[in-house]
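Module 6 notes. Inverse folding takes a fixed backbone as the condition and produces residue identities as the prediction. Think of it as a translation problem where the source language is geometry and the target language is the twenty amino acids. Below is one complete input and output pair. Work through it position by position during the lab.
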């Protein structure tokens, strides 16, 4: 039997997975990848274009941009992953409880979600970050809160659909209490859409976090994240295009890769989709 050829979509998914793996390795072990320390300033290499010595060129301090991008991936990925975890757990729990319990609790929780949903995610995160001030914790909090409404809505609809299923009625009939039904049946059988949404949400969270950093409301550390690197390079686009281009390329590649994986994950979990 001949080997089955990969489709273009499958090939893109494998490439996306490889990109995510490489960037994750950079975030976990930057000292193994970066050729220079991110704080190392070389007075004889200020604003040097990409070369064999400096793959992504150098910035106005003489720092190696490739090393900065590698080390900056840690904060950017941390913001994306942790924000999705906090937003997903909080919003998912809120939505599942709202859908399962119903009544006035559903009304109150969903009105809160409706208010949050009237504000675009980036604008909501911007307002929270501006009110609390620029810091790493505040960026994670702002991005997490902006993600809550979407997760809450998805889990509410899943919980409402799930509690009417025959196996839930059967569980009631044998004397199972609400806590058992909620934790053993409602939540586990409602998680698939949330997992897909969370996978795609990592890319969106990184974009929002980078946007906050770009606007000066993000992470202020000795080692800048990708959004801060973009902000630092925007004033040098005509004389040192590489300062902003390579951090921007890193953000673009990672977000596109996460979205491709998320789409594939969604197709895999979709019971209505035919699998060959």
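Target side of the pair, the amino acids:
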């Amino acid at each position: 039997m001949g080997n089955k050829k990969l489709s273009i979509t499958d090939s893109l998914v494998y490439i996306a997975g490889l990109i995510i793996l490489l960037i994750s390795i950079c975030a976990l072990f930057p000292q193994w990848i970066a050729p220079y320390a991110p704080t190392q300033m070389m007075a004889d290499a200020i604003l040097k274009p990409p070369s064999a010595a400096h793959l992504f060129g150098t910035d106005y301090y003489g720092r190696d941009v490739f090393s900065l991008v590698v080390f900056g991936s840690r904060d950017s990925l941390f913001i994306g992953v942790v924000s999705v975890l906090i937003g997903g757990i909080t919003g998912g729990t809120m939505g599942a409880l709202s859908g399962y319990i119903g009544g006035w609790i559903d009304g109150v929780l969903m009105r809160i979600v409706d208010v949050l949903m009237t504000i675009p995610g980036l604008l909501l995160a911007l307002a929270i970050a501006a009110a609390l001030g620029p810091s790493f914790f505040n960026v994670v909090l702002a991005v997490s809160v902006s993600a809550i409404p979407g997760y809450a809505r998805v889990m509410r609809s899943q919980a409402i659909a799930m509690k009417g299923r025959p196996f839930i009625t059967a569980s009631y009939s044998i004397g199972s209490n609400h806590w058992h039904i909620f934790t053993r049946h409602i939540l586990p059988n409602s998680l698939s859409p949330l997992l897909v949404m969370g996978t795609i949400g990592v890319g969106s969270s990184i974009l929002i976090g980078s946007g906050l950093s770009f606007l000066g409301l993000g992470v202020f550390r000795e080692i800048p994240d990708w959004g801060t690197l973009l902000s630092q390079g925007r004033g040098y686009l005509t004389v040192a295009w590489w300062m902003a281009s390579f951090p921007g390329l890193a953000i673009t590649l990672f977000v596109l890769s996460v979205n491709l994986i998320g789409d594939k994950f969604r197709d895999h979990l979709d019971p209505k989709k035919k699998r060959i």
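Reference fact for the lab report: Residues 268 and 276 are 11 Å apart (CA to CA).
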